[in-house]
Amino acid sequence: MLMRLxxxxxxxxxxxxxxxxLMTFANACLGLASVVYALNNQFITSAYCIILAVxxxxxxxxxxxxxxxxxxxxxxxxxxxxxxxxxxxxxxxxYSWSLSSRHWIGLLAVGLYLCLGLFRLAKxxxxxxxxxxxxxxxPTTAAAAWIASLVIASxxxxxxxxxxxxxxxxLSLIVGILAILMISTVRFPSFKSRKEIPxxxxxxxSAAICAxxxxxxxxxxxxxxxxxxxIFSSIIINAVFLIRKYRR
Length: 248
What we know:
By secondary structure, the chain is an all-alpha fold. The chain has ten helices and two strands.
């Protein structure tokens, strides 16, 4: 009886192990949908596809660990799908949405974003993330989510004092900075590890939550504010550590 029960449990686990793969493929399909919508000038819908891809990307790894189906194949597949949804798709969205008006400058900006994003993914596959408490360099998911949030928030930005951000030249500069951050040595908290995070780094989620709540209260773009707060506060804390290091 126990043997039958164990065999049934193992068979059910094998059946459920396909779910993480479906999540990974959903990530890639949403990246494809984002490109298709962008080429049809439906940029807000295209941006939401990237946001959904980020959510699916966050779920596949967790489900793989729950079902005990983590594998090298799954990791490689996840990386390839990330290349579609968080490197290629945002580049197409950016160029179709705004940067095509500046021709080679826009092409240079999105090309830099694409190449450095792919470089980050390849480097991650080769050496891993090391300390799971932090990402070394801005994750492609965060960069893509910021770009998608910017597109979604563009109607608000056009009517605000921040309009310069979405001008082709301003956007090209910001995209270049995002690309460099992806391959930088700047540490960004991952919150994936069970290890205790140093207290100063808890300021980052605190700042992001406070910024998000303020965004809801004063009715400014929530996602853009939340992700921007995460990126900026991480850069500031890294700068503080760097200054302390050189003062010693």
